[in-house]
Amino acid sequence: MLKEKRALVTGSTSGIGLAIARALAAEGAQVILNGLGDADAIAALCEELGASYNGANLMDPQAIARMMDEIGPVDILVNNAGMQHVAPIEDFPPDKWDAIIALNLSAAFHTTRLAVPGMKARGWGRIIATASAHSLTASPFKSAYVAAKHAMAGFTKTIALELATHGITANCISPGYVWTPLVENQIPDTMAARGMTREQVMNDVLLAKQPTKEFIQPEDVAALALFLCSDAARGITGANYSIDGGWTAE
Ligand code: NAD
């Protein structure tokens, strides 16, 4: 389905981004991986997917510009890289605020502004943001993350309107809790912020949000991303697709 399409998936050395990269590669896309991680493990992923890799630090706009220049035009851009920090607002470290806004929001602006001219030239493009249920609703102690994800939803709607007549769609996918390192790593801080045990955080904070009482699987998020890349999805733009076990229905 995606033969001859070139796809950059940011934050694709782990979790949801890796699942999306695998799904796109399985459909024949030429995938460019990005993200942090062990060099040998990343080399093995490149081998597995027939992919290339660019290790740009997406908190650095100049590094993003170099990456976009080095990799050349892309047809599919998945703005997926992200991080979390959990703390009450009065204790929220300003450097964590800046890092989350840079990675979860501004990086998508920088990749998108540089990818769009090539998409316009070819009259086809797919821009997908891994947003979050937190693009639609809030949880305490996640001020930077919720702010960045709400902003991603607004950014996506804006570019969808700008690009609507160019064969380029822009959409958000908004997962609930997906079992990845990003979720696992926030458990200790959530235990501290709420005075809870690990089990209480898992059941009373995380899965309490999801009526299905199950974590979303990265592969299920990837299947939705793949659909948004299909020709059948050419009329879907500016949308924000929830895949959250019913969380935001409440
Ligand atoms: P993850 O921690 O497994 O993966 C994050 C990826 O981002 C990794 O590849 C990591 O190397 C990369 N990354 C981190 N800092 C980077 C930097 N400075 N420069 C370049 N790459 C960097 O997390 P995940 O759960 O797969 O999250 C992926 C996206 O999905 C994020 O935007 C996250 O907010 C979103 N999301 C996750 C969940 C969830 O429950 N896991 C839910 C909703 C949304």
TrEMBL record:
<dbReference type="InterPro" id="IPR011294">
    <property type="entry name" value="3-OHbutyrate_DH"/>
</dbReference>
<dbReference type="GO" id="GO:0003858">
    <property type="term" value="F:3-hydroxybutyrate dehydrogenase activity"/>
</dbReference>
<protein>
    <submittedName>
        <fullName>3-hydroxybutyrate dehydrogenase</fullName>
    </submittedName>
</protein>
<feature type="domain" description="Ketoreductase">
    <location>
        <begin position="5"/>
        <end position="176"/>
    </location>
</feature>
<dbReference type="InterPro" id="IPR020904">
    <property type="entry name" value="Sc_DH/Rdtase_CS"/>
</dbReference>
<dbReference type="InterPro" id="IPR002347">
    <property type="entry name" value="SDR_fam"/>
</dbReference>
<dbReference type="InterPro" id="IPR050259">
    <property type="entry name" value="SDR"/>
</dbReference>
<dbReference type="GO" id="GO:0032787">
    <property type="term" value="P:monocarboxylic acid metabolic process"/>
</dbReference>
<dbReference type="InterPro" id="IPR036291">
    <property type="entry name" value="NAD(P)-bd_dom_sf"/>
</dbReference>
<comment type="similarity">
    <text>Belongs to the short-chain dehydrogenases/reductases (SDR) family.</text>
</comment>
<dbReference type="InterPro" id="IPR057326">
    <property type="entry name" value="KR_dom"/>
</dbReference>
<dbReference type="Pfam" id="PF13561">
    <property type="entry name" value="adh_short_C2"/>
</dbReference>
